[in-house]
Design a protein that fits this description.
By secondary structure, this protein is α+β, with helices and mostly antiparallel strands. Helix content is about 25%, strand content about 25%. Strand 7 and strand 8 form a beta hairpin. The model has no long low-confidence stretch (mean pLDDT about 85).
């Protein structure tokens, strides 16, 4: 009976373990680190850095980092571009946002205007600031509401905050 009880408890524990929660948290932390690195690059090289969030087709799971030396918002031949993929996640518009904005995968006044709707961007100035606050939303390909995560970025300092929707409502998470 003891062995049967242990097997039942172990089976219940294994089915309750959800590795996707850890993967989604890791994706948000990767985005945080990417923004911090882009901010440091902008300051140290005295050049604007643009982060472009690809949200369509096969590229819906990556971020482009552009060292925009000519400050035109476009990729030119002499500029450095790198790509950073998300792991098992994609940019996704939630049903409700943390900033009460119209649901989109990226919201806020700090987004660069004039980009295609499916490829929003934020620009980090050479002094390390953004044009305004931005909130990014990511979810899983399975589109489960409890897998949703958000990253809010304060424009003046590029300070980030991590949000989770695991309980059905947005909750700020500790670092």
């Amino acid at each position: 009976m003891v062995i049967t009880f242990i097997a039942v408890v172990a089976g219940w524990a294994v089915t309750r373990f959800n590795s996707m929660n850890y993967r989604m948290d890791a994706n948000v932390r990767m985005l945080q680190n990417l923004i911090i690195g882009a901010q440091q690059t902008a300051i140290s090289r005295n050049v604007p850095v643009q982060l472009m969030f690809d949200a369509s087709g096969d590229t819906a799971m990556r971020v482009r980092v552009l060292l925009d030396t000519d400050d035109d918002g476009q990729v030119s031949m002499n500029e450095v571009v790198s790509y950073r993929p998300l792991d098992g996640a994609r940019f996704l518009a939630p049903a409700t946002t943390i900033d009460a904005a119209t649901p989109a995968y990226a919201t806020g006044p700090g987004l660069v205007s004039g980009r295609p709707a499916l490829m929003q961007a934020l620009r980090i100035a050479p002094n390390g600031t953004l044009g305004g606050d931005v909130v990014l939303y990511i979810g899983t390909v399975a589109n489960r509401p409890y897998d949703l995560r958000a990253l809010s970025i304060t424009g003046a300092t590029a300070r980030t905050a991590f949000w989770s929707n695991a309980t059905g409502s947005w909750r700020r998470r500790a670092y």
